[in-house]
Amino acid sequence: RHDYAEALRIARELGDAVIERRVLLDLGFVWTGADAARATAYYDQAIGLGHVSKDPGVLVESLNLVGNRALHGNHPDESLRLHTEALRIAREAGNQEGEARALELIG
Prior knowledge:
The chain is mainly alpha-helical.
């Protein structure tokens, strides 16, 4: 966990939002079993970075990843909400890969 925290600090120091988002997703995954509130905070930050990204695919990927984690964490309603949002954004952006992934995860 310390290595991830250090990676997050460095990414923020460098202003590298791509790496920062990836580390936040990883931190969310790491904390999922130990501290759900902390994991959710990291996931929310990653999705927030996706919202400010100029690439809608980044947001779609974040939503799908967090939605998948929600499903595995026994939160099917939250998972469906996140995948549905990812699907909507992917369709609006013409992102067929993101659309296909969201549909796959929705089932």
